[in-house]
Specification:
Oligomer: single chain
Structural class: alpha/beta
Mean pLDDT: 87
Radius of gyration: 15 Å
Number of helices: 6
Strand content: 15-25%
Largest sheet: 6 strands, mixed
Order of helices and strands: EHHEHEEHEHEH
Strand order of the largest sheet: 4-3-2-1-5-6
Length: about 160
Amino acid sequence: GVFVNRDVHLLFIGNSFSVDASVYLPKLLELNDIDFTVGVLYQGGQSLSGHCKNFDNMSSYTYYEYSKSKGYWTKSSASIQSALKLRNWTDVVLHEVSHASYSLSYVNASLQPLIDKIRGYVSYDFNVDYMLTPAYGISNSGYFEEMYDQINDVG
C-alpha cells in the first residue's frame, strides 16, 4: 500500500491518463489513518499547453472527486480555478498528453507557465507532481528509461 503520515489532497489536471492513474488511489490511501481527497479535472486528449489556454479562458472540465468522508466518487463540472478553490490541495499532479510526452522541450514550453498560473491564483502552498505518461507510437525499447532520466534530471 501507500503509507503516508499527513493528510493528502491531490488534484490531477489532465486527460484520460489522470483518470486511469487515480482510480485506485482512494483504496490505497484508505490504508492510512489520514484525511484525503482525490480530485481529477479531465479533458480527453488535453495537453499542458491546452490547460494553459483553458486556464486563461476558464474552460470547463469534467471533475471527479473521491473524499474519505464520502467514500465514493462524484462527478460534476469545474474550471481549473474553481477546482483550485475547493480546498487547499497538498499536491497538484500534471502530465503531458501522451503523443507529446517524449519531447522534454515540448513539455517544458508549457509546464512552468501552467505551474506559474496556478501558483499565482491560489494563496496556499502545494507540491507540484509530474506524472510520466507513455508516448504512443514509440517502439524504441530504451525510450521510457531515457524519458525518465531526462525528466528526473530537470527535477
